[in-house]
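name: query_chain
kind: protein
chains: 1
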Amino acid sequence: MTNTTKGERMVNGMKDMDIAAIPLDINDYATRYNLRLHLDPEEPDRSCRAAFYRDLDLMAFDVLAVKHLAAIKEERKKRKLQHQ
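structure:
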């Protein structure tokens, strides 16, 4: 990506290297592929966070991972689907 004059000069200097370059609107790209560039982050669930740290002290890591990481993965899927 070239977002500066210096970057644009560098890309223009590489034209003889047979590098494919396409024009890209960063706003269009962001709205399609990088939600965090244009959406405010969601507030984390404080009760889940407290439970995670409580369990971190009490459980073996493999048990903790099964319990919490699976839940985190599912929550991320839900959020991603909401924004598509």
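note: The two ends are 24 Å apart (CA to CA).
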